[in-house]
Amino acid sequence: MPSLDSYLREAEQAHGHLCAGQVLGVRLAMLGLQKLGIDDARSHENRKRLITFVEIDRCATDAVAVVTGCRLGKRALKFRDWGKVAATFVDVQTGRAIRIAAKESSKTLARTLHPEITDKNQQQMLAYREMPDDDLFTTQWVKVELPPEEFPGYKGERIVCDSCGEGINFCREVRRDGKVLCRSCAGERYYELL
Questions:
Q1: How far apart are CA 153 and CA 73, in angstroms?
Q2: Domain range annotation of the chain
Q3: 55-109 confidence digits (pLDDT tens)
Q4: Could you tell me the maximum CA-CA distance found in the chain, to the nearest angstrom?
Q5: pTM for the full model?
Q6: In what helix (H) or strand (E) does residue 25 lie, and over which residues does it extend?
Q7: CA dist., res. 124 & res. 85, Å (int)
Q8: Other beta carbons less than 10 A from residue 136's beta carbon
Q9: Domain formed by 4-149, architecture
């Protein structure tokens, strides 16, 4: 497995800057891979082995993507908007999955470890590099059911919405009153038509 420093350089490049969230995300993903026994998820033999669920759309998520090689466009990175610095790593070869979450107490511990640093981000960046995994994270072995359409490379039927005519992939259609609808036409819009 590449080193923490190596991953942090890549994370900084991918994200645009290095911050405490990046350090936390890199450490979180490294721990997930270690627990699953995957040395380098980005290697050729492992690149389709992992699916990762992230629970926040902040800095840590970009770092998790760097370490795991999981990307939304590859259907290997799944986003659940729960507002938590947490991720679940699923080894699709073995079916084993582990959820790792950042401990809220790590922020307070960072202050006690480095009271001489007044900048909170710098304080946390240094502390998060040094803290043992048990002080930073909680881990839970979990079970994740993945239907075929959730796997990378899934080639399913493309359905057309009876209302708007747009195509729908990956079994995301809604069937209502004998019609096939996209989620937007079924009322699940995140936008408002003008």
A1: 10
A2: 4-149, 156-194
A3: 999 999 999 999 999 999 888 999 999 999 999 999 999 999 999 999 999 999 9
A4: 66
A5: 0.87
A6: helix 20-36
A7: 15
A8: 23
A9: 2-Layer Sandwich (3.30)
